[in-house]
Amino acid sequence: MSAARSMEPWRWLGIPMLQALAATILFGIPIRVFGLQLPEPVFPMAAVFAWAVIRPSVLAPFCVLLMGLFLDIFWGGAMGLWAVCLLLAYGLVLAGRNMMAGQSRTILWSWYGVVTATAMLGGYLFIMLDVKSQPSLVSVAWQFVATVLLYPFAHRLIERFEDADVRFR
Fold first, then answer.
1. Measured between alpha carbons, how far is 14 from 20 in angstroms, rounded to an integer?
2. pTM for the complete prediction?
3. Which range of residues forms the domain containing residue 48?
């Protein structure tokens, strides 16, 4: 296990936020390989999950809000949709943080899947209310699978910073 890093906000909030947004832009490039487009996972979900598990913070919800608004603008969706979904995920993880503390990688991955499913279900329902039409369940399922496969990035962030602030152990 690696040594804990300091809890400077730019290090545990700023860098992962920029990485998630850069990955979103990279995967948003319209490249087709054998007629298939790159998946569109919700990269910020990994950072959102990790930030809530690492420690409560005043800055993290603002970063989550900014990432959600960026996703709304980048994908051309309803303004505030992804912001609400990511904040919902952050709140769920923060509420269950004590149950997740000290759990194995597999259990945390399961929690990540549940939180991702809840956020995407919320987004699905909000889109249904907004456009008064049902989004494609297949597309949502593929986006869910692609996002759940991002858990190793969240776990890496958790391992790097979980022991950095002894006040929240």
1. 10
2. 0.87
3. 9-162
